[in-house]
């Protein structure tokens, strides 16, 4: 079965760049029908969509984060990545990666999530 | 952006009894292809969200049939026919009609 696993630093300093990777196992990231996405959840709060990428490289980002976000894909490693620049304490959150169906519009499955804290 | 709202935000439930959560969108989620792009997720305590319902009423694989989704346009409902203890957590609705994809604020379901 498809599994996703986030990895990356758990602590990032303000103004620096947050970098996370999502490793996909049990299936190929080069699926024409699916996108691969990032969603975040500040502690004790709700879910916020960050963006998605297709294996072809096509992306879609949240307008509120678009100026700071880059999502990329590495099909040779079956993984995709998130970079969020100029972070502030407001970017402290659990970051989830997930597969997104471009035709039906669901996120499934989700990775276990990784907490990223922005602090000096 | 499409704004999603949910009610109630907190729902005490009794095992064996039914429960219902409402979700509303600021605009219709009906696509020109005839599908309605509304999903439901459950985030159990300490876990990642899991897909329950897609396209307003399609149960995801492995989801018990006590969960059902209904609704159209802007008004949607998630129903649990008989609540079990394992159903506690936060339920989110999400619209996938257009980007930015947006989630409701969540409904926390807990045992009375």
What would a concise description of this structure say?
The complex is a heterodimer of chains A (120) and B (112). Helix content of chain A is 0%, strand content 52%.
Biggest β-sheet description of chain A? 7 strands, mixed
Q: Determine Rg of chain B (CA atoms, Å).
A: 13 Å
Tell me the distance between the termini of chain A.
39 Å
Strand content of chain B: over 45%
Biggest contact: A-B, 20 and 24 residues
Relative helix content of chain B: under 10%
Q: Count helical runs of chain B.
A: 0
Quaternary state of this entry equals: heterodimer
Low-confidence stretches of chain B: none
Task: Give me the Rg of chain A, rounded.
Answer: 13 Å
Anisotropy-based shape of chain B: globular
What percent of the residues of chain A sit in helical stretches (DSSP H or I)?
Answer: under 10%
Give the beta-strand count of chain A. 11
User: Which sequence of SSEs, written as H and E, runs from N to C of chain A?
Assistant: EEEEEEEEEEE
Ranges of chain A with pLDDT <50 over ≥5 residues?
none
Describe this structure in words.
The complex is a heterodimer of chains A (120) and B (112). Chain A is mainly β. Chain A has strands spanning 3-7, 11-12, 18-25, 34-41, 48-54, 59-61, 69-74, 79-84, 93-101, 107-110, 114-118. In chain A, the strands form 2 sheets. In chain A, strands 2, 4, 5, 6, 9, 10 and 11 form a 7-stranded mixed beta sheet that branches. A 4-stranded antiparallel beta sheet of chain A has the order 1-3-8-7, with no helix packed on it. In chain A, strand 5 and strand 6 form a beta hairpin. Chain A is globular, with a radius of gyration of 13 Å. Chain A starts with a strand and ends with a strand. Chain B has 112 residues and is an all-beta fold. Chain B has no helices and 11 strands. In chain B, the strands form 2 sheets. In chain B, strands 2, 4, 5, 6, 9, 10 and 11 form a 7-stranded mixed beta sheet that branches. Chain B has a 4-stranded antiparallel beta sheet with strand order 1-3-8-7, with no helix packed on it. In chain B, strand 4 (38-43) and strand 5 form a beta hairpin. The termini of chain B are far apart. The model of chain B has no long low-confidence stretch (mean pLDDT 98). The A-B interface holds A 46-49, 60, 62-64, 96, 101, 104-113 and B 1, 35, 37, 39, 41, 48-51, 54-55, 60, 92, 94, 96-97, 99-106.
């Amino acid at each position: 079965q498809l599994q996703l696993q986030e990895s990356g630093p758990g602590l990032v300093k303000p103004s620096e760049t947050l970098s996370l990777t999502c490793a996909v196992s049990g299936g190929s990231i080069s699926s024409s029908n699916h996108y691969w996405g990032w969603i975040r959840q500040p502690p004790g709060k709700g879910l916020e969509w960050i963006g998605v990428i297709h294996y072809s490289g096509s992306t879609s980002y949240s307008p509120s984060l678009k100026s700071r976000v880059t999502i990329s894909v590495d099909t040779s490693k079956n993984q995709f990545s998130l970079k969020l620049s100029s972070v502030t304490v407001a970017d402290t959150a659990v970051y989830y990666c997930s597969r997104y169906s471009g035709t039906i519009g669901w996120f499934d499955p989700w990775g276990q999530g990784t907490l990223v804290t922005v602090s000096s | 952006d499409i704004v999603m709202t949910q009610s109630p935000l907190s729902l005490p439930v009794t095992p064996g009894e039914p429960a219902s959560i409402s979700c509303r969108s600021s605009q219709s989620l009906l696509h020109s292809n005839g599908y309605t792009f509304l999903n439901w997720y459950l985030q159990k305590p300490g876990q990642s969200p899991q897909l329950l319902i897609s396209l307003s009423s399609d149960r995801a694989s492995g989801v018990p049939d006590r969960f059902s989704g209904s609704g159209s346009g802007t008004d949607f409902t998630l129903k649990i026919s008989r609540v079990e203890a394992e159903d506690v957590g936060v339920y989110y609705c999400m619209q996938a009609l257009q980007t930015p994809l947006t989630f409701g604020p969540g409904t926390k379901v807990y045992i009375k």
